[in-house]
Amino acid sequence: MTRIAGQPWLHEPALNRLLAALTKAGIAARFVGGCVRDALLEQPIADIDLATPARPEQVMAALAAAGIKAVPTGVAHGTVTAVVDTPSPPRHFEITTLRRDVETYGRHARVAFGADWREDAARRDFTINAIYLDPDGTVHDPVGGLADLNAHRVRFVGDAATRIAEDVLRVLRYYRFEARFGHGAGDPAARAACRGAVPLLATLSAERVAGELLRLLALPAPVPALRMMAEDSVLTAVLPEATRIDRLDRLIAIEPAPDALRRLAALVAAGADAMAAMAERLRLSNAERDRLVGLAPPWPIDPTADDRGRRLTLYRLGADRLVDLAMLVLADGGPAAAEGFLELAANWQPPAFPLAGRDVLALGIAPGPQIGRLLAAVRQWWEAGDFTADRGACLARLREIAQGDRQ
Q1: Which of 30, 364, 367, 373 is 20 to 30 A (C-alpha) from 105?
Q2: Would you list the DSSP string of 181-210?
């Protein structure tokens, strides 16, 4: 047991209103999970979850008495979401009754209420997620999470294989937590259990797999964890295309900020068709699929192009895609001249094409396919001239081409 102080989030008005409602009803509650772990690490707090010995119906009654909306998001498993109105958007807090597993089957379980704090901790995934915090700042550590947190050690609560059998997604969560909180080598017992669970990974939904992979890739330093995943045969099981950890490592060294999709494109060895198939298998969104396909090799940029050629490339691809492609070329060991694309994207804004369909109609040309064909011809001429022609010059070129069509 220890204490932490100076936590601004503990004094948040919405949270104080929630705690007052519970206290008035005689309900004890402690914070648990990520908010406690991150507070101990002095990291920003995102979601705030609470645990309580009180049953869900007692929690809902206490919230209703205080005028706080209660949503039965998982009453069968003891979870109620409190929606506290504040001057800003409403704050959501999950409150879960202490519980123990009676029977587990995959990610689901039949639970019993009336557990004590130690029993509740015993069913959680990692020791660093099973630390509790009283509202007064008192820390309760029933399974040794504090020592693991201080040692940068990610360890399952109790038997690792048992925790994984309760929810196979914990295999992928383990490596993500290693990337964020671990020391790089991993816990031998945890890794052995993950290796043993590889055949079960096929039972996970594509959405859950994709979510974990993208969250891992969004972390500052995912490569050591990915290498562990590869060594443990986990990476091949969930993402067989992921054979370019070396390229991802080089990309991370040059990118300005983490970008999970760009990192995924660097990690996998896949052409456009294979990239599209991978995106479909992972049930990524259409926008995510299209972006990945656009980053598949062969990459449509020439690092040795002159300044005019680079400007044309930027105009046709757009700055965002060009930056992605230039970084991938560099990470793949391509010419250092590709850095020129990054400088260009940061310092040059492509001009807008000065003509539109109404300019063609003004020449007396009837609506139809010829409108687009004439505009395309002028645009091609304008691009070839390095975008220097102004509106007047483009109109003159349009009249010239249209006159030639009439002859």
Answers
A1: 30
A2: H--SS--HHHHHHHHHTGGGGGGS-HHHHH
DSSP notation for 252-313: HHH-SS--HHHHHHHH----HHHHHHHHHHTT--HHHHHHHHHTPSSPS--TT--HHHHHHH
Distance in angstroms (rounded) separating the CA atoms of residues 325 and 155: 38
Q: How far is CA 391 from CA 132, 136, 387, 396, in A?
A: 67, 69, 11, 9
How far is residue 154's CA from residue 160's CA, in Å, rounded to a whole number?
11
Fold equal for 1-151 and 153-294: no
pLDDT, tens only, 265-286: 999 999 999 999 999 999 999 9
**Token pair for residue 107?**
């990610």
Pairing type for strands 91-97 and 79-84 reads antiparallel
Fold of 1-151: Beta Polymerase; domain 2 (3.30.460)
Q: Taking Cα atoms as reference points, which of 212, 173, 206 lies closest to residue 190? A: 173
Do 252 and 219 touch, CB atoms closer than 8 A?
no
CA–CA separation, 258 and 249 (whole Å): 12
Domain ranges of the chain: 1-151, 153-294, 307-347, 357-406
Amino acid at 53: P
Tens-digit pLDDT profile for residues 354-372:
999 999 999 999 999 999 9
Name 402's Cβ contacts closer than 8 Å, sequence gap at least 6.
360, 363, 365, 374
pLDDT tens per residue across span 128-156:
999 999 999 999 999 999 999 999 999 99
Do the strands 2-3 and 138-140 form a parallel or antiparallel pair, or are they unpaired? antiparallel
Q: Which of 311, 307, 314, 387 lies closest to 352 in space, CA to CA? A: 387
Alpha-carbon span 365 to 375, nearest angstrom: 12
Contact 371, 401 (CB under 8 A): no
Whole-Å CA distances, 35 to 45, 47, 107, 122, 363: 6, 6, 23, 18, 66
- Distances in whole angstroms, Cα of residue 281 to Cα of each of 202, 275, 390: 12, 10, 47
